[in-house]
Amino acid sequence: MKNKRKMKKKSGQASKGAIINHKIIKNRILLALFLALLFLVALKIINQPRPDKMLEKDAEKLLNAITNNQLRILDSDQIDEKAVEDVMRKDYEELKSELGLKSDFCIFFQDENGKLVKIDGMKAGIGSEKVKVNGVSCG
Fold it and tell me: Which pTM value belongs to this model?
């Protein structure tokens, strides 16, 4: 009988040890997952484009589109009014997407004295209503 009691105690102790080991392993896995998640969040934050760089890229894209790519509303120092009218007819969000821009924009024209040049039917410019030029909504 003494042998049977000893066996029961040993088997009971083994299961407690297994439970403790299982908890330790489970806690380590949870800690590893938490650290991996924390690492991914930190990496995402670090790799986010800076707003000023994004604005710079969008400004470059827009300038290219205006002068020699998609929009072609300027020909050297002359405004192509027909091209401007074509661009004005486009939906702002479509135009923004077509140009691959993420930032809001406004295309406006000034004369040599800094005064706004308006083309028939154009408000302050072509673009987002959020942007104001001389206190006037652009789009």
Answer: 0.58
